[in-house]
Write a structure and sequence with these properties.
Two copies of one chain form a homodimer. By secondary structure, chain A is an alpha/beta fold. Helices cover about 30% and strands about 20% of the residues of chain A.
Chain lengths: ~500, ~500
């Protein structure tokens, strides 16, 4: 149904070249161009002081032979404007293309993915009418480093990397976000009962940094329990900070619980550049029909406006958008569920928002954004994230052994051990063999299922002693000369006397 | 409220030594002993033909210096009986103890974690009254191999391992389970849009094996979308098969959605041994009070009875338990929610089940278990899982380069590249450097945040050529002699001409 909203109370501001902030815009694939057109129309009508410049990324670029989906001139624009409003893109299936989203995030150091998940009951049907939470997802590391190797006939590996500066940046961002946005609690979720070193680091950094924010309540949950709690009682959460993969899963759960994934935007914040987008994909099945809901991208653009210190415009747009919900204006994705009348197309929906600029919602809670603090230095993006943590002094690192991974198609760990032990090494001795992490030598069980991928742990011949780096090279040489198929190594080190490697399962 | 159930219609069967199946029982920590006592009482009253022998595992063993939480005599019992009914245990915090659950699963090759998640509306409050799904979680590999290394001052790593036989075993089990239990659909969930090699293998094996089960409907979902769908529309799922970590998260979500995590049991199935347990933990806060709900362990024991081909007893117990729900018998964990009367203690609850042996539920759907097929060979556990897939013929593997990971505290990839290139290697040339997976040389961007952990990709000097294993050792020797801190290596191989390694992000 068409709303009978009054004429807008507020005239659009008059952007002048002097105040217009250059931003980079990508219209994307699928429904991307339609929702971007609608979004930019609303921004212009609301008086956003922006000077958009357009880049091409995504499917067209992949097809043109840019294996990363982006061309050099696009990078130039992004690095210059430092603000990116991005429509969804399509990564072609097959061909081993890297996800462009991941590439942009990582190349530009967009370490924080910020995703508010809010219910709009009763205007959008949801089982969880009181949800209002924000997921702050680490955006650069974890398994998304994309470092994968096939190592044997049977075994494929992906590296999960968690770094101290990465943890410090995201955890600090979450607390700063909570403080700036009047949020009261930050919950950390990890799986550190299993991954004691990697996820353990994330949890430890959380414990270190939360001490600096005594006014903010904190909690830690194991990810499986936390995800289950989120799925059933999302209203209990406020800000959640978590590593990349968990954040990916939690974000989708939370968005779905609100009743529609079509209404959520997200920010990707870096030290230098920030990117704003809808959380949904490019929906090629409905592309070109002019029926897509631009709300997700629009709310991403609202976050962008706050970021570039145009909180007044952001507030005006967001409240007008809330008014459309209250007035029963809807796009095709929200049809049904007792709604009457015909759904609005993308551009009509934009017009409906524009008609309501200057109005405040009466049943949903109006928003009131504040401009963030001005950037500390001119080289930072406007309202950019925290600066990178300073590099800490190096720990006292000692090399104490090496895990040598061997491709061996036999089934007997004893036979492999005998072969390994026949290779001369004065400095190193074989301590243990595991298969998929389980100790199979010495003293393995026949029930343990073994693949063709064996981790052979060598430690200093002298108990507790150190090993010269050269001794490891010599060991690898001896193994190689004996025809053993070494496929990878992992050095074993202590850091300030603390063991930097996990025991084998059953060790 | 106390039920006015009639006297049991069915007398307990009389177990004789000749028919009693030896099983191993661990009473566990926290509430473990209480719920095990209640469970064994029900089993005995129902005429289960079992001969339990008790082992000690868990907290007591950790404290006694067994770093894996289990002693040799316990292993002996498990390996002999091949059937394990286990109460929850407590892993002490701190001290770097490995999870005993993980150790048992992996050492005994319990590759399939099977967890039915069922709603019991209206007798247990839930937003999802029509849920009836089973999660078949891979139980041995993925990030739970527990292979973690601290590699630099800043970077910690965990290996995610996915193997072809591991995928084949779990996917086949899921289809066999579906077929044996009249389930109609199997949904696979992975994150293979990001982890194209590891999760890609799981998905590929799913596609291979599903072709053998044409009567079963199949589907694949990306895990974030799948988890969101599960959280909001669990009634749409039947059997879900998924790698370890995702399964861990999904299992907890699904259990929570049923309205109580206290009512679910699970099976851990291996080729030789199988373990049955409750899904909940040891709840030390309520231990020793006699108020814990034994239902989870009891339903685990029901799965055990089916496994040892006592489907008649399993059916009788499960239906009697459903009758207690219908009659409003409840333990303290389910108090509130409109229930009247006092909660039952653990043993009183067991008695209430025993009183109802022989009755069928009238509102909830009665169960009717079938004995699985007899084991193919006497060495298998009764009704054990599928035998391990035969090892496939080796692929034609060619070594084409090596990723050398370097601990380097500088900030300039160019400087590092210059140092690496100054090391003599006729056979290999530096192709690329990445930091956390992102290409930073050649042609990096200053916006990319760099840690002290650099992956340096060397490939054959001759474009597309092969490399001798010895050439890699020589390169490592040259790097080491030049004072470069090599912390790990990953060989680059092709398998039957197909590249066995991922590109760098931005490459």
């Amino acid at each position: 149904m068409k709303s009978d909203a009054p004429t807008p109370l507020l005239a659009a501001a008059d952007p002048t070249p002097a105040t217009a902030v250059p931003i980079t815009v990508a219209h994307g694939d699928g429904i991307g161009p339609e929702i971007m057109q609608a979004t930019l129309k609303v921004l212009a009508a609301a008086g956003a002081r922006i000077a958009p410049e357009t880049i091409d990324i995504g499917e067209k670029l992949y097809r043109a032979g840019h294996s990363s989906g982006i061309a050099p001139e696009a990078w130039e624009s992004l690095r210059r404007t430092k603000v990116f409003l991005k429509s969804p893109i399509t990564t072609p299936q097959g061909g081993g293309y890297k996800s462009l989203n991941v590439t942009i995030r990582k190349t530009l150091g967009l370490y924080a993915n910020v995703r508010p998940c809010v219910s709009y009951a009763p205007f959008v049907a949801t089982r969880h009418p009181k949800m209002d939470l924000v997921i702050v997802r680490e955006n650069e590391e974890d398994l998304y480093a994309g470092i994968e190797h096939r190592q044997t006939d049977e075994v494929f590996q992906c590296l999960k990397l968690i770094t101290r500066p990465g943890c410090e940046k995201i955890v600090r961002y979450a607390f700063e976000y909570a403080r700036a946005n009047g949020r009261r609690k930050v919950t950390c979720m990890t799986k550190d009962n299993i991954m004691k070193m990697t996820d353990g680091l994330f949890h430890r950094v959380f414990d270190e940094i939360r001490a600096e924010y005594p006014e903010i309540e904190t909690d830690h949950m194991i990810i499986d329990i936390g995800a289950a709690r989120l799925a059933t009682r999302p209203e209990q959460f406020d800000v959640i900070v978590t590593p990349n993969l968990y954040g990916d899963i939690l974000s989708d759960i939370a968005a779905e619980l609100t009743g529609s994934v079509g209404l959520a935007g997200s920010a990707n914040i870096g030290e230098h550049v920030a990117m704003f987008e809808a959380i949904h994909g490019s929906a090629p099945d409905i592309a070109g029909q002019g029926i897509a809901n631009p709300s997700g991208l629009l709310l991403g653009a609202v976050m962008m406006l706050v970021h570039i210190r145009q909180a007044d415009i952001a507030t005006r747009i967001h409240n007008a958008w809330l008014c459309t919900l209250e007035d029963g204006v809807f796009t095709a994705d929200l049809a049904g569920a007792g709604r009457v009348g015909r759904p609005f197309g993308s551009m009509d929906f934009a017009d409906a928002i524009i008609e309501r600029l200057g109005r405040l919602p009466t049943k949903l809670k109006p928003v009131q954004y504040q401009n963030p603090a001005a950037p500390a230095t001119p080289t930072e993006a406007p309202a950019g994230g925290a600066a990178a943590p300073a590099r800490r002094p190096a720990a006292r690192k000692a090399l104490v052994g090496v895990d040598v991974f061997v491709h061996f198609s036999g089934h007997s760990a004893d036979a492999l051990a005998a072969r390994l032990q026949s290779c001369p090494s004065a400095a190193l001795r074989l301590q243990m063999i595991t298969n998929r992490g389980v100790k199979v030598w010495p003293g393995g069980f026949p029930e343990t299922f073994c693949t063709d991928h064996w981790r052979c742990r060598f430690v200093a011949s002298e108990s507790g002693g150190q090993v010269a780096a050269r001794a490891i090279v010599d060991l690898l040489g001896a193994l190689t000369d004996a025809g053993i198929d070494v496929i990878k190594t992992e050095n074993l080190c202590t850091f300030d006397g603390e063991q930097g490697f996990a025991l084998g399962q059953g060790q």
